[in-house]
Design goal:
The chain has 575 residues and is an alpha+beta fold. It has helices spanning 3-14, 115-118, 133-136, 198-201, 221-229, 283-293, 306-309, 356-365, 374-382, 385-395, 402-414, 422-427, 435-444, 460-463, 488-491, 523-532, 542-545, 556-567; strands at 24-34, 37-38, 47-49, 52-54, 58-69, 75-78, 83-86, 93-99, 102-111, 147-156, 162-170, 176-186, 190-197, 213-214, 234-241, 473-474, 500-501. The protein folds into three domains: 19-241; 283-414, Orthogonal Bundle (Cytochrome Bc1 Complex, Chain D, domain 2), CATH 1.10.760; 422-574, Cytochrome c-like domain (Cytochrome Bc1 Complex, Chain D, domain 2).
């Protein structure tokens, strides 16, 4: 440290301003850059980054143990506060509370979480908490612990073709301390903008087919290089007072329902959730929703109900690729199974409906589905005295509206919880898996990475965890160019074309045919697609694109074992 720097620090330390009257809130905002240039994540394009020509489609991280360094060398330590970043989804900041006002020489934090947190039960964290797996999508479940930093995208291989890269830094030995010297004064609520330079993160990393992924296993030199790079990849860009919010969003209104409260039972190990505060579960509301689920008067022709295309014996799915609507016309997409909906953040294959009630009404009025006239539906149901009594018991009035129909069905569908498959019982030690099922689980849970001695199907990337879905939207290589816009129809982003929500694999043996268009009749066909049938679309998910052009090359026996494992996910309550 130079003499001039020491003098500056001494002057800074001695020139303290009067202490502010209260602890401050400091928002840490992160933005990705390459050198000094910002990185576009919404519509990723290939760009030169170090030795690589690549795009970036995911930047996720867990930040913990933030501390501000005082001039006397002590720390304002903020343990127990965590940040879950997903820069590609716009979640680029988190707020620290209780920061003592004063002058500081800089800050430090951990990229990742300490071992006692990393190996604790992830089901303990409340809905909305940074460590809740539904929030961060970084928990490895059976693999153990959290991913600390996830970077994914596409890159130009030496042969000119597009590959996929997936770098996941994790495991206790790779917990990384980041120290950022920066003279700052905190006198009130403050926003501190930090840049993460991806060129520095990827310094000395040359992506290649045998060097384009890591899961931070012991002895993985690529992971070691990333851990060496991370501390020098962050820098403080600017500090400014946090602007006052112009609009304060009202808290979600909690409704006092007239019916008998019905408790929602959270299965062991499942992430905690927030149920709709404006539509609390009641015995009467759920009973009404169950009744409406089989009500044919919700359709235009009076012969079709929700249960027509969502059959309880098939885990509330249909047996055909495209269900026929009330007018005999095929729908646009395969009927999704209906269970564990409480854990999904949005509904339909493209996530276009934010609530179950919205999806219910959309299905009822869609001209390819039930094609109902809402006015006629309300009129027909209102003439039914017994049904009016049921609405009064559930909602306090005999008045029937489309909105209340949606709320009743939402209550019922929220109670369809699947958590008691053979696999669940095996995890609880209640029943053994066969050798084929065990081998299938091992294949399911293992990354395909022959360069590091790993041969598996990589299923856990999208279908890991107790829910067997990350609920993200991905292009899985069904077509080189998708005829269905998929998620792009919702976002308007061309890079989302052909992306669809990851379905849960629970009850998957009951829900054939498969994919958004029902193109595959059997599980064996689905496995074969991921093994050797992937079309290398431009926006193919990186965790699939990193596989060789020839595919995974699982043996016939391995594919059969994988199917055997998938069959253990069936819940007897749903067949």
């Amino acid at each position: 440290m130079t003499t001039s720097t020491l003098r500056l620090l001494a002057a800074f330390a001695l020139g303290l301003s009067p202490a502010a009257s209260r602890a401050a809130e400091v928002t840490l905002a992160f933005r990705p850059v390459v050198g000094a240039a910002p990185v576009a994540l919404a519509a990723p394009a290939l760009a030169k980054v170090g030795a690589n020509e690549l795009s970036l489609t995911r930047v996720s991280a867990l930040i913990s143990s933030v501390a501000f360094v005082r001039p006397d060398g002590s720390f304002a330590q903020l343990e127990g506060q965590f940040g879950a970043l997903a820069l590609d989804e716009g979640r680029d900041r988190f707020t620290l509370r209780g920061v003592p006002p004063g002058r500081y020489l800089g800050l430090q934090f951990l990229a990742g979480v300490r071992p006692e947190v990393n190996h604790a039960d992830p089901g303990q964290w409340p809905a909305g908490h940074a460590l809740n797996p539904l929030v961060n999508a970084l928990h490895w479940s059976w693999q153990g612990g959290y991913i600390f930093l996830a970077l994914e995208g596409r890159y130009r291989r030496a042969d000119g073709e597009l590959g996929g890269w997936s770098l996941h830094v994790a495991n206790d030995p790779r917990l990384t301390l980041v120290e950022l010297p920066y003279l700052l004064e905190i006198t009130g609520d403050t926003t501190l903008t930090l840049e993460i330079d991806l060129a520095r993160v990827l310094a000395h990393v040359a992506l290649a087919p045998d060097h384009d992924s890591t899961h931070s296993r012991p002895g993985d030199k690529l992971a070691d290089q990333l851990v060496e790079n991370i501390p020098v990849s962050f820098r403080v860009a600017e500090i400014a007072p946090t602007p006052a919010a112009n609009v304060v969003s009202p808290a979600e209104k909690k409704t006092a329902a007239p019916g008998t409260p019905l408790a929602f039972t959270l299965p062991p190990g499942f992430p905690q959730i927030s149920l709709p505060a404006d539509n609390p579960l009641t015995v009467e509301g759920v009973a009404l929703g169950r009744r409406l689920f089989t009500e044919v008067r919700l359709s235009r022709t009076g012969v079709q109900s929700c249960a027509t295309c969502h059959q309880p014996a098939r885990a509330f799915s249909d047996s055909v690729p495209l269900s026929l609507g009330a007018d005999g016309k095929p729908g646009a997409r395969n009927a999704m199974p209906l269970f564990n909906l409480a854990w999904s953040g949005a509904y339909a294959w493209d996530g276009g409906k934010p609530h179950i009630r919205d999806q219910v009404v959309a299905a009822m009025t869609n001209d390819l589905e039930m094609h109902a006239d809402p006015v006629r539906v309300v009129s027909a149901l209102s003439a039914d005295a017994a049904l009016g009594d049921a609405f009064r018991a559930a909602f306090g009035s005999r008045e029937i509206t489309v909105a209340l129909i949606g709320l009743a069905l939402e209550q019922y569908l929220l109670t369809l919880v699947s958590a008691d498959s053979k696999f669940d019982r095996a995890m609880r030690g209640e029943t053994p898996l066969t050798e084929d099922e065990k081998q299938g689980f091992a294949i399911f849970s293992t990354e395909y990475d022959p360069a590091r001695g790993q041969r598996g199907a990589d299923c856990f990337h999208c279908h890991g965890g107790v829910l067997f879905s990350d609920y993200a939207y991905k292009n899985t290589g069904l077509d080189l160019v998708s005829a269905d816009p998929g998620r792009a129809g919702v976002t308007g982003n061309a890079a989302d074309r052909g992306k669809f929500k990851t379905p849960s694999l629970r009850n998957v043996a009951l829900t054939a045919p498969y994919m958004h268009d029902g193109r595959f009749v059997t599980l064996a066909e689905v496995v074969a697609h991921y093994d050797h049938g992937v079309e290398r679309a431009e926006n193919l998910d990186p965790n699939i694109a990193k596989h060789p052009d020839a595919g995974l090359q699982l043996t016939d026996a391995e594919q059969r074992q994988l199917v055997a494992f998938l069959r253990t996910l069936s819940d007897p309550c749903f067949k």
